[in-house]
Amino acid sequence: MWEERLKLYDELISKCSRFERKGKTMPYTSANGYMFSLLNKAGEVGIRFSKEAQEKYMEEWDTTLFKSYNSIMHGYVLIPENMLTDLDDLSVYLDESYDYVMTLEPK
Asked: Which of 50, 53, 57, 74 is the most exposed, fewest CB within 10 Å of its CB?
């Protein structure tokens, strides 16, 4: 299950030319000193958004904040299973997340 989800996560990231996946045991993307997506041990994908976008997407997608290693990752939205079937659509949200972290003060 996890290996299949890792392939899917890599395929999603390959659709976005401005960044690449990092991490061996905990795959993630980062830019400007901030992580903005990750794949947890359960094979779930979380994407970071602004506070306004988080609230909007959690309601629209009927989902929650993302959890990794039993901790709530504030700022990250859990991507619902049904959204993982359309990576072209999902890549738009991943690009939005990248754009968001690029507006933050660099770390």
From this structure: 74
